[in-house]
């Protein structure tokens, strides 16, 4: 009964995708995980970035394409997902300068812009006075 | 037994079954939620190089193990979908139970990890990095928990060969949760 009702549905996204070797894809993903963990051990910044974030992008692509079957899903889904991802880029581009820079064309951040907890303030003051004492000696 | 079916299972909009389309809409809103957190974390992290010292206290082995667990649970989720496609409800249910087990393993590892970190003094209020760490990983863990509960409900009906299309729908959600962790792992555990 349930089968009969489902047969009337449009084909599921994965209906034409099950010739894929999912275990092989999983093995590739596991291999990439090993790369992302061992890569940063080399200690070279570029290698770390590529191993961590480049590999993450490849892993996400493999999961979306092969497990979520995005490659055979209706294009509208890709457009929906693409649109919100673009919004995230827009969010970053719009807000990042305010967060990361200390000054812009018509603005400068005061020293009190970032919240510093009372404990940290105390610790910083302690460090400062130690430096001053060291300089006097 | 009633043969009445909900609109989500009988109607198709834009050539996509409504239930599956609804899952994609959920994921679109989830991208905004997780994307917002991750984007603001990245911009703050770039503005605070000193956070690298805080990140050095996270447990990379636990994070990597959890990544492996989620990747493996994604495999069982897609194998469950494959079984549902071929009309084998009981096998699909078994695969979903296995996926759920993966989710519970993930949460158990996370619980041990957080217990250790909190005992070390790295609480939610220990600094900016830890605020993001607990907010992002905590929200993700909540999604894992919700996914497990929904999966148990779907597996119960799949076992009786009912509503097999739901196996694909929960699978899509689970793969998304996996993808979010794929990005959280390098951001919180690798970039030190």
Structure description:
The complex is a heterodimer of chains A (about 140) and B (about 190). Chain A has 5 helices and no strands. With about 140 residues, chain A is an all-alpha fold. With about 190 residues, chain B is an all-alpha fold. Helices cover about 80% and strands about 0% of the residues of chain B. Chain B has 7 helices and 2 strands. Chain B has a two-stranded antiparallel ribbon with strand order 1-2. In chain B, strand 1 and strand 2 form a beta hairpin. In chain B, helix 2 packs antiparallel against helix 6. The longest helix of chain B is centred in the last third of the chain and has 32 residues. The model of chain B has no long low-confidence stretch (mean pLDDT about 90). Chains A and B meet through helix 1, helix 2, helix 3 and helix 4 of A and strand 2, helix 2, helix 4 and helix 7 of B.
Could you describe the largest sheet of chain B, including whether it forms a barrel?
A: 2 strands, antiparallel
What is the CA-CA span between the terminal residues of chain B?
A: 58 Å
Helix content of chain B: over 70%
Question: What's the N-to-C terminus distance of chain A?
Answer: 90 Å
- Poorly predicted ranges of chain A: 1-10
* Structural class by secondary-structure content of chain A: mainly alpha
Overall mean pLDDT score of chain A? Answer: 80
Low-confidence stretches of chain B: none
